[in-house]
Amino acid sequence: MFLDEPEMVPAAQGSEPVMNYAHAWAWRQDVADAFTAARALLAGSTSLSPGEVAVVNVAVASARKDAACSLAWGATLAEHRRAAAAADLIEGRTEALSDRERALAAWAASVAGDPNATAPADVRGLRAAGLHDREIAEATMLATFRLAFTAYNDALGVTADAHLVAGAPAEVRRAVTYGRGSEAYSNVAS
């Protein structure tokens, strides 16, 4: 991380390690808590499936070249799909996904890349894939929350946690060829 260590970093919960990003966010723990609460509220009440949520997050993380979130969400997507499908999405391929998931991945990548370039035709495409307006709004919120999270972490030099790297399927690690430390990801034993 590029900043000095803050005075207070949140304590680990049980056996969970303190994540690398928590050090950067601890400079404004009040803001971090509010941001986390907003993300949890959305994730806990979305009508999108857990696999679809993972697709949105992987699509944003990979579009933004964020290694940590690509590893974490790639591993989550691998739990809902094959690890190869998660690796494919990290690399920009969507053939193994459903029509809804392909539409969500394209939308999330567009939101991450150039939100001003989206158009009514993109929303019509989401609807044609079976998504209704609330799901489209939720997917957009998920994408923009991930975008803000990754931008903050990456700008301040936050690296992927060792347990994220070690816990990701080998296919996912090999697919993450970007971000700080990525040169070592494919060398981690499964």
Give a written overview of the molecule.
By secondary structure, this protein is mostly helical. It has one domain: AhpD-like (Up-down Bundle). It contains ten helices and no strands.
Task: Give a nutshell description of this structure.
The chain has 10 helices and no strands.
Q: What general form does the structure show?
A: globular
Tell me the strand percentage band. Answer: under 5%
Estimate the helix proportion, in percent. 55-70%
Query: CATH superfamily assignment?
Result: AhpD-like
List the topology elements:
Blueprint (H helix, E strand, L loop, with lengths): L19 H6 L3 H17 L4 H14 L3 H14 L2 H8 L8 H15 L6 H9 L4 H23 L6 H6 L2 H6 L15
Helix pairs in contact: 2-8, 3-4, 3-6, 3-8, 4-5, 6-7, 6-8
Feature tags:
globular, mainly alpha, 190 residues, 0% strand
